[in-house]
Amino acid sequence: MILHIPHSSTNIQDYKFKNSTRELERMSDHFTDELYQNKQATNIIFELSRLICDVERFADDAQESMSQFGMGVCYTKDTEGEKLRDFTQKEREEILQNYYYPHHKRLELAVDKELKENGSALIIDCHSFPEEAYHFNSDFGKKRPDICIGTDAFHSPKELVKKIEKYFSAKGYKTSVDNPYSGTMVPLKHYKKDANVHSIMIEINRKLYMDDSYSKNSSFEQLKEEIRVLLNSLE
């Protein structure tokens, strides 16, 4: 099992952003590097904030739908649609070379290792999301579920999707598949090419484990244990 955790970091190094504190609070998948635990898994955790580099975006903005909102691989706009910062072409290329491509290479190598050792690989794409959607979200103004399961028609086995959905539903959580978020991470080397590479995205509503001050609430440890038990059952 590979736990892909791309958005947990709040590290922005020396980069300067407008409203950086607010945007880090809003856009970071807080504590997902703690919530998702499996002792046998390989953890692929991105070391920088997604505000600097979002490794789940396409490197080419022409291929990335979120680039229209200034949220391509390097964010230039914030959650209010206001200017966040500018990236020169040189800065953008340095970020891709120094962070984006190395991260994807790490994930690719982890998948290759699993395939070699086990004949198959399972990626869990680990995320969280805010209770209230932002203006650029497809479900803006609508009620959101507790758990969102993102899938890929080629890489997400139906029985795996059903097992995760059944598990969370039995715990009393409201679940949804591919709504409000869809898709899941697969290295381009294997994407639509190797059916032995399985991947599924799990998105946790932050209201389940955080309070309004972006701190862990009293349910954090229970949810962490529930996720641990689920991940152990998927090995």
Task: Give structural notes.
With 235 residues, the chain is α/β, with parallel strands linked by helices. The protein has one domain: Aminopeptidase (3-Layer(aba) Sandwich). The chain has helices at residues 20-27, 32-35, 89-118, 158-170, 220-234, and strands spanning 2-5, 42-45, 121-129, 147-150, 175-177, 197-205. It has a 6-stranded mixed β-sheet. It is globular, with a radius of gyration of 17 Å. The chain starts with a strand and ends with a helix.
What is the number of E strands?
6
Q: How many angstroms separate the termini?
A: 6 Å
CATH class assignment: Alpha Beta
- Low-pLDDT stretches are none
Tally of individual domains:
1
* Main sheet properties: 6 strands, mixed
Structural class: alpha/beta
Question: Outline, from the CA principal axes?
Answer: globular
DSSP strand content: 5-15%
The H-and-E topology, N to C, reads as EHHEHEEHEEH
Adjacency order of strands in the biggest sheet: 2-1-3-6-4-5
CATH superfamily: Zn-dependent exopeptidases
The mean pLDDT is 96
What would you say the CATH architecture is? 3-Layer(aba) Sandwich
Radius of gyration: 17 Å
Name the helicity range: 25-40%
- Write the CATH fold name: Aminopeptidase
Number of helices: 5
